[in-house]
Amino acid sequence: MLLTSNRKEDVVKLYIDLETNLKLLENLDNQVEGEVLASCLFKKLSQETQRKLVEIHTDNITVSNIRARMKQEVKEERVLKSLTPQCGLKTLDKFDGFQSENTQRRLPFKGGYTAEALVSADNDRSRYSQPYCVFCDHASHFSDECQTYPTIADRKRILDKRCYVCTSRKHPTHHCQNASKCYHCGKIGSHYRALCPDKFPRGNNPGFRSYGNRRQESQRPNNGNPYSSNNLIETQEVSTSPVSVETQEVSNSNPIVGEIQGGPSSVNAGVYSNSSSISNKANQGNNHHAFVYFQTATITVLNKDSNRVCEVRALFDSGSSHSYITESLKSKLHMNDDLMTSLNMNMFTFGAEAPKTVTVGKGFITILDKKKTQKDIEVCVVPNIINNHSRSPFDNTFVSYLRSNYDLADHYYSGREEDSLNIDLLIGSDYYNYFIKGCPIKVGEDLYLIESPFGFILNGKTSVVTDREDAYQFFLKAEMPMKDLQDLKQFWSLETLGIKDSYNVSNDDLALQSFEKSLNYDDEKKRYFVSFPWINDCRDLKSNHGIAVGCLKTLARRHKDDGILKICEETFNDQIKKGVLEEVVDDREDELCHYLPYFAIVDEKRETTKVRFVMNASCRGGKNGHSLNDMLYRGPVLLENLGSLLLRFRLNKFGVIADLEKAFLNIGLNNEDRDFTRIVWIKDINKEVTQNNIIILRHTRIPFGVNSSPFLLGAVVSTHLSKFSGEIPTQLKRDIYVDNVITGVETEEELEKLVVTSRDLFDQASLNLRSWATSIKNSKFFNNLDPSITSQKEVQTVLGFSWDTYNDTLIVKHSFHYKNEPVTKRLLLSACSSFYDMLGFWSPILITLKVLIQKAWIEDKSWDEKLSDQDSVQFVGIVSDLESAASYPIPRDVNLHMPNVEYELHAFSDACITSYSAVVYLRCTSSDQTQVNIVFAKARVAPKERPTLPRLELLGALLAFRCLKYVVSSLNLKLAHKYYLWCDNMTVLHWILGDKILPTFVQNRVREIKSSSFKIDFR
Hints:
Blueprint: H1 8-27, H2 35-44, H3 47-57, H4 63-83, E1 89-90, E2 104-105, H5 115-123, H6 152-159, H7 214-217, E3 247-251, E4 266-268, E5 272-279, E6 287-293, E7 295-303, E8 308-316, E9 324-326, H8 327-332, E10 341-347, E11 356-368, E12 374-382, E13 392-394, H9 396-405, E14 425-427, H10 432-435, E15 437-442, E16 447-452, E17 455-466, E18 471-475, E19 478-479, H11 483-489, H12 506-518, E20 520-522, E21 527-530, H13 545-558, H14 564-578, E22 581-583, E23 598-602, E24 611-615, H15 642-649, E25 654-660, E26 668-669, E27 678-682, E28 694-699, H16 709-722, H17 727-734, E29 736-737, E30 740-745, H18 748-763, E31 769-774, H19 780-783, E32 795-798, E33 801-804, E34 809-812, H20 825-833, H21 843-858, H22 869-886, E35 890-891, E36 902-911, E37 915-925, E38 930-941, H23 949-971, E39 976-983, H24 986-993, H25 1000-1010, E40 1017-1018
Parallel strand pairs: 8-14, 9-12, 21-26, 36-39, 39-40
Antiparallel strand pairs: 1-2, 3-18, 4-13, 5-6, 6-17, 7-8, 7-11, 9-14, 10-11, 10-19, 11-12, 15-16, 16-17, 20-21, 22-28, 23-24, 25-30, 25-31, 27-28, 29-30, 32-33, 33-34, 34-35, 36-37, 37-38
Helix pairs in contact: 1-4, 3-4, 15-23, 16-17, 20-21, 21-22, 23-25
């Protein structure tokens, strides 16, 4: 937005631009209030507006104040214009290199006369002794004698949107009650004397029409002429606010229409919208249509990566939040899928109440204007924007007239048959204001020319009668799904119960295929070597050398005096000695390579590695560049195994954990990918970082920080263990998560066998299994192990839990500390996310916090808006309970380690108006002892729509069934004979046990509960 002047036209334009941008930001739930934005906007205001704001609000000026003041000024300007005959109408001036010298012509204002009084004076020449022309502002002749504007079309253009009978702005022509008589033809209440169709030529501008005698004209046949005046109708305004997501119809009819005797002289094409359609028997089968003509232009686009250039037809749409291209244009430009990112979007189809989430590609193209100026824009790829449509009639004479005076941006109005009608590019509000500049130039009643770097764009609406009713739909706006909002909705979404079925991503299969092709084993080195899973085997990456050097300078400056640089130097020297890194000797400039910036993570509390280097593989080389992570498949995600690992960890008599030493750095990287993992280091840490004091290294192993590294490590470990048969390889493969082994044994002998066998297995892959810890007390074997492979800490960390090995108990960890700050929605989410409870031990406490979060969301609280005193007190109580829970020990061992133990799993469900929950107990029974423990629990917030209590109870029963099913599959208790599901609602039990036809909502959930593969006793 440019700095505005005191001219009211500039104030109006600034207000429109400001509201358009702010509404788009508010639509995406962005905060528009702020001192910085208010200050920037205040500087762009005119001095008159600034003084008014200071007078009203002194120094407390906000964005809301600015918007309200500008709205008031625009409203006042409109009122003034309606009371005076002045208008700021632009005349048709010749186009000159994207800049038009538009003059303003104003109707004269004399004293306190209204427009009606002025025209009445002109109609009655005897009233004024001196002649005066309202069109050219000369006193040498009367208005109907004007030769500067001889045609009706020219004169109506000067009159702007006035009534063509009395020239008033207060009403349209067809509502005029003036019964004055025309000086030339004698008709009463038909037209202003200077617009008499019997006296003056109409002109060739189809944007205007003569109304004739309105009372007689309504009964006059149109003789099939689609452009006759009585066929023209009014349209309702269609909101283009970005707040609503709409679809528009595009009709195959005339793009530029008006009143031309004899109808259209030629056929051509345009893009427009069919707003309404009314049938009239007098039209002899033809249909009335009001058309809105969208802003189209012919634009040259370039793909810099492939150097492909295409000329396409583009649509400018300020109601779209993004810009789009079609798949056809993407193919023509040879855009590489590997260089594009994927984006999930919510798209609304016509008439749909809910959006459809689709995944689209996202990339960059370059726009060239007529001066060859380039502009890079980011676009999403969709199958099509507007469906193909045939050419439709428009008046070639009028278009030729415009083309002779203006450089029209859309070449398709030239009428060439070889030109395509397809819209392959949609430029949305993200770049709309960059290309659309200047004020519209009026060329018809509702037709305008808009200035752009591509020429003048025709835009507006008019009316026509046609016998064609072809219609096409296209979307104007796609809504970006907000990830945080989706995550929050999982609190109360019906189907996301926290236990999800396994899902497959097609990219995972491609990553596995790439891994299998590149995997090889070096017998001499006893090491596995792999390659990165490149997307489409593309390695087109920028060097990033300058960024890497800059990050190294930052690292050296930050740790200049704390001794970390010395530790880093020792670590790098050790890795070079062990072959983890190697020096790049021959650094050719033409060689394809990629440098990784990195940072050092210092953790003095760690028993082993105090400093760990993390490679920043997400660093992009410039705006249009791609990072290493962008070019790689991530590989299968293993996080869904966490709950099962913890459940099994509680079954054995003694818990056992270990981890693989520097696991990532012990998986070899094939030679062809090593140059994409280059790093820079300092030759002498006591000197400044200069080009002569830099050494270039590259990884020979999988670096930590690459998105596919966890997958490659897991895949190598799984492949290696699959080579061996037996109980221990199977146990290790089942109980390993990335580089951590979480398992257990029943006896000390089993522990010895596990340690010896597993270390030998991993040693064959050059992996060192160390940091062993167990809950066995005073184990002679364990105490005699080499201290370098055991952990001396009494409290270990196991997948987010603290494990006290001496007492064999688990403690839930959290990182939230309440400091008596104001309770806001942001604070609620922070507290909820800081409490890690994978097995649901503290669900009764956390569910109250989640209900409070839902309440804040329903009340539409802003992120930092303080909650009510009642909610704040409730939150303080919840925090106190959570802190108490964090110190409460949970027994790790839940099993009876006796012969002939029978296992029973009992799932209980319950619900209230705000939530529903489920808990699973493991009951172990021997001949003389019974033990019951909670093994899994889940609580969910009720949907905002608040179903009936029986339905909420049914949701609780479904949650209990899913929890029970999950525990059964995780524990794999072959000896478990009985499974129970307890529900305290008789209605739900009748639904489950009965055979009656039930409502769809109920039936679908009952069907799932009855689909169990094991027998459940419902109680």
